[in-house]
UniProtKB/TrEMBL annotation:
Stored Gene3D superfamilies: 3.30.2130.30, Vaccinia Virus protein VP39 (3.40.50.150)
InterPro entries xref list: RlmKL-like_Mtase (IPR000241), RlmKL-like_Mtase_CS (IPR053943), SAM-dependent_MTases_sf (IPR029063), THUMP_dom (IPR004114)
Protein name: THUM3 protein
Skewed-composition ranges (Acidic residues): 201-211
PROSITE patterns membership: THUMP, UPF0020
Originating species: Semnornis frantzii
One Gene Ontology biological process: tRNA methylation
Keywords of this entry: Cytoplasm, Methyltransferase, RNA-binding, Transferase, tRNA processing
THUMP domain segment(s): 192-302
Annotated Pfam families: THUMP, UPF0020
Family as reported in the entry's similarity comment: Belongs to the methyltransferase superfamily.
Metal-binding in keyword set: no
SUPFAM superfamilies per record: S-adenosyl-L-methionine-dependent methyltransferases (SSF53335), THUMP domain-like (SSF143437)
Length: 513
C-alpha cells in the first residue's frame, strides 16, 4: 500500500494512529504534501491530467476506476486546486491499496475493513481537511448577499439537448453507487452501469466565487478557529464533536459484501476510533471508501457539492456539466481571436465556460427555442453580476453573445467560424431519434458552410451514435473525423467527436438578408 500523504522537509514523523494536533498552521500547510483525488467526466481523464500539469505543475496518475485521477501538491496549493475547470469533486487521499486482497467470507472481509481504520495515517489528511475548511469559511465570510431571486422551475419543450443536470444533493461521484453508513440498503451494481439519467433540477443556485485571495493569507486566517479533527476524545472541554458519514463507492463482481455493508462497518469503526457522531445529512466530515475490484482508496472529501455547478443559475431540462463543457472546448484547442460558436446552446453551459476560460476568443451562442435563449441570457447576466461583486466595480464584460436562430439556416457568413462546439439532441428528453435522421445531416451541412475550410474544427457530443455516424458518412466531403472520446452522460453512453473541416467548398445557401 502507498500512503496518501508524504512528510515534507523537517516534519516530525507521524504514527498511523497518532493524536491529531488540531488545525494546521500556514507554515505546516506549506510543508504538507497532499495526494489529491479528483473525479472528472468519464473519458476526459487525460484532459484533466493535462490541466493539472499545466496549472499546478504536478503529474497525474489516472485510476483504473474510470473518472478519477490522482496528483500530489503542497497543501498550500488548495485554492488553485479548487480553481481547476475539469474536476467535479475533490478529496484528500488517506491511503491507497493498489492490490488489496479481500477475504472470501463476508464476515472476514468486513472485519478487515473495520481493522483497517485504526491502522490508517489519518493525522496529515485531517490537517489538509482543516486547511480546506478554513478556506471555505473565509470565502463564505467574504461572500456578499445573493443578487438573484429564487429559481424558476420552468419546463420547456424543444430546447437544445444537453447532459442532464446534476440535481442538488444527488450522487457526488459520477458512475458510482453511493452508500453511507447507517443508511437504508440499496441495490449494488457495477459502477459503469448504475447511474440512471439524472432528473432535471430546475433550481437556480447562487454559486460561490471560485477565485480565492492570496493563498498564504487565507491559510493563516481562520485556521485557529476550526473544529478539532484529532483522534480519540475531544482534546478540550467544550470542543465541538464532529459529525461524519462514510460514503462507499464500489465496483466489481467479486466482492462478498455490498456497498452498504462496507460503509456501515467501516463507519462504525471510524466512529469508535474518533468518537465522532454519525450523521447522514448534516455532517462535517465525509469519509470516502472507494473500492474498484482489488483497488481500495480511503479519502476525505474536500468538496461539499460538485464543482461543475459553478456557472449555471437557470437550469433547463437538459443542462451540460461545466466540467464536460470544459473538456470539449479544450479538445478543439482554441487560439486567441478564434470565433467559437455553439449553435444549439440550450442554457449556455458551453459558451459561458468558453468565455470564462478563453476570454481572448469571441463566443456566439444560439438556440431555436426562445425559453432556452432566455435562460442562457440569464446565466450570462448572473456571471456578469458575479464578476461585479468580485471586482467591487463595473466588470469589463465577457466576449459572448446569445441569439435565437435556426440551426439549419444560420445568419452567419460562409467560412467565418473557426470552431463549433455543441451538445446535439440525443432524441430522448428533447426531440426524437426519428427526427435526428433528418436533423443531423442538415446540421453538419450548415456547420460545414460557416466553418473555415482547412483549419476549422467541430467538437460535437451525442448519444445517438448510429445516426451521427450515418450523417457523417454523407458529409465526408466536408468533415473528417479526427478523434472520438467515449463519455458517460448521466448513465448514457455517449461520444464526443472531434471533426476537422476539409478544404472542400460547402454548398452555398440562399441569402439571409
Amino acid at each position: 500500500p502507498s500512503a496518501g500523504l508524504r512528510q515534507g522537509p523537517g516534519m516530525a514523523e507521524t504514527e498511523a494512529g497518532g493524536d491529531g494536533q488540531g488545525p494546521a498552521s500556514c507554515e505546516e500547510g506549506s510543508k504538507l504534501a497532499a495526494v489529491i483525488g479528483a473525479t472528472v467526466p468519464t473519458g476526459f481523464e487525460l484532459t484533466a491530467a493535462a490541466e493539472v500539469q499545466e496549472k499546478l505543475g504536478s503529474a497525474s496518475r489516472i485510476s483504473r476506476d474510470r473518472g478519477k485521477i490522482y496528483f500530489e501538491v503542497p497543501a498550500g496549493s488548495l485554492p488553485q486546486v479548487h480553481r481547476l475547470r475539469s474536476v467535479d469533486n475533490l478529496f484528500v487521499v488517506v491511503q491507497e491499496f493498489k492490490d488489496y486482497q479481500f477475504k472470501a467470507s463476508k464476515e472476514d472481509a468486513l472485519k478487515d475493513l473495520e481493522d483497517m481504520v485504526k491502522k490508517l495515517p489519518w493525522t496529515s489528511p485531517l490537517k489538509v481537511w482543516e486547511l480546506n475548511n478554513s478556506l471555505k469559511k473565509k470565502k463564505s465570510r467574504r461572500k456578499k448577499p445573493s443578487v438573484h431571486p429564487a429559481a424558476s422551475r420552468e419546463k420547456l419543450q424543444g430546447e437544445g439537448e444537453e447532459e442532464g443536470s446534476d440535481p442538488k444533493g444527488t450522487n457526488r461521484e459520477e458512475d458510482s453507487t453511493e452508500n453511507s453508513a447507517s443508511v437504508e440498503p440499496a441495490s449494488d451494481q457495477n459502477t459503469e452501469e448504475t447511474k440512471a439519467a439524472e432528473a432535471q433540477s430546475g433550481e437556480e443556485e447562487q454559486e460561490e466565487d471560485p477565485e480565492q485571495a492570496n493563498t498564504k493569507d487565507e491559510l493563516q486566517e481562520g485556521s485557529g478557529s476550526e473544529a478539532k479533527a484529532g483522534e480519540g476524545q475531544p482534546s478540550e472541554a467544550g470542543s465541538k464533536v464532529l459529525k461524519f458519514r462514510v460514503t462507499c463507492n464500489r465496483a466489481g463482481d467479486k466482492h462478498s459484501f455490498t456497498s452498504n455493508e462496507a460503509a456501515r462497518d467501516f463507519g462504525g469503526a471510524v466512529q469508535e476510533h474518533f468518537q465522532w457522531k454519525a450523521d447522514m445529512t448534516d455532517f462535517d466530515v465525509e469519509v470516502l471508501l472507494n473500492i474498484h475490484n482489488n483497488e481500495v482508496v480511503v479519502g476525505i472529501a474536500l468538496t461539499e457539492e460538485s464543482l461543475h455547478r459553478r456557472n449555471i443559475t437557470h437550469f433547463g431540462p437538459t443542462t451540460l456539466r461545466s466540467t464536460l463543457a470544459y473538456g470539449m472546448l479544450r479538445l478543439c484547442d482554441p487560439q486567441p481571436t478564434d470565433i467559437i460558436v455553439d449553435p444549439m446552446c440550450g442554457t449556455g453551459a458551453i459558451p459561458i465556460e468558453g468565455a470564462t476560460e478563453w476570454p481572448s476568443c469571441y463566443h456566439i451562442a444560439g438556440d431555436n427555442n426562445p425559453q432556452a435563449v432566455k435562460r442562457a441570457a440569464n446565466n450570462i447576466c448572473s456571471l456578469l453580476k458575479k464578476q461585479e461583486i468580485k471586482e467591487s466595480s463595473t466588470a469589463p464584460g465577457i466576449p459572448l453573445d446569445i441569439i435565437q436562430w435556426d440551426i439549419c439556416n444560420l445568419p452567419l457568413r460562409t467560412g467565418c467560424v473557426d470552431i463549433i462546439v455543441s451538445d446535439m439532441p440525443f432524441g430522448k428528453r428533447i426531440g426524437s431519434k426519428k427526427k435526428n435522421w433528418d436533423l443531423y445531416p442538415a446540421c453538419l451541412m450548415e456547420m460545414g458552410r460557416i466553418c473555415v475550410p482547412g483549419t476549422g474544427r467541430a467538437v460535437l457530443l451525442t448519444q445517438d451514435k448510429k445516426c451521427f455516424a450515418k450523417a457523417l458518412s454523407r458529409m465526408g466531403h466536408i468533415w473528417r473525423k479526427g478523434q472520438t472520446v467515449w463519455v458517460n452522460v448521466g448513465g448514457l453512453h455517449a461520444a464526443v467527436y472531434l471533426l476537422r473541416r476539409t478544404w472542400e467548398r460547402a454548398e452555398e445557401r440562399r441569402s439571409f438578408w
